[in-house]
Amino acid sequence: MLNKPWLPGKDDPLLKTFNPSLEGFKVSNVMKIDRREWDEDVVKDLFDDRRDKEGNQGEEHSGFWRQLWRLKVPPKVKNLLWREVSGCLPTKSQLHLKDVAIDLYCPSCNVVMESIYHSLVRCSFAQEVWGILMLDVNVGDFEVFDVWFEAILQRFDHPRVEKIATVYWALWEARTNVVWNKKGVTAIALVTSALLLP
Ligand SMILES: [Zn+2]
Question: How many angstroms does the Cα of residue 64 sit away from the middle of ligand 1?
């Protein structure tokens, strides 16, 4: 996506971004799921706005992004992590804000209100998954993804962080499948397919 001249004008038609995880991104990554239209929130956050070069969001997250960028994980995994940091994942509470009629409970346990940190890290199903991998990801009770992930980056070496990021993505996929397709998966099947990811 970054190599194609998307912008009008011959002088500088390439998109610019502070976000290193965007390398290798496809256009479909910033389109709304199942619709042929731009996901405006994603587009706005992803690219440097030519009209406003004063933004400092890039600097705030630059150390974090540098570390994230070095991880050898598929672009879709980096995409998820980035969207999570930016608060633009279609979680139940986000959808609720947009007037989508949906319950607000964690789709795995249906006991507590869904937060992504709970569903992908603390929920019993997630803990079963992390247990199979023998990775103790309970590095504190942060509730906020980027604080949690920074702690993960400090605790584990890169190969293990890459495994955690990939399984985190698989947990998000599994959660989405439960919400929209009512299809569950066992913890062992999730781990097996996540570790076979290209
Ligand atoms: Zn739960």
Answer: 27
User: What are the structure tokens assigned to 113, written together?
Assistant: 């209100």
The tens digit of pLDDT for each residue in 86-108 reads: 888 888 888 888 888 888 999 99
DSSP 41-106: HHHHHHS--TT-----HHHHTHHHHHHHHHS---HHHHHHHHHHHTT-S--HHHHHHTT-----B-
SS3 5: strand
Class of residue 163 by CB neighbours under 10 A (exposed 0-12, middle 13-18, buried 19+): middle
Assign 127 to helix, strand or coil.
helix
Taking the centre of ligand 1 as the mean of its atom positions, its distance from the CA of residue 96, in whole angstroms, is 18
pLDDT value of position 188: 95
Nearest Cα to 48, choosing from 79, 14, 74, 25?
A: 14
Q: How many angstroms separate the alpha carbon of residue 59 from the centre of ligand 1? A: 34
Ligand 1 centroid to Cα of residue 88, in Å, is: 20
Q: Which residues of the chain have pLDDT under 70?
A: 1-62, 198
CA of 106 from ligand 1 middle (Å) equals: 5
**Residue 22 alpha carbon to ligand 1 centre in Å:** 31
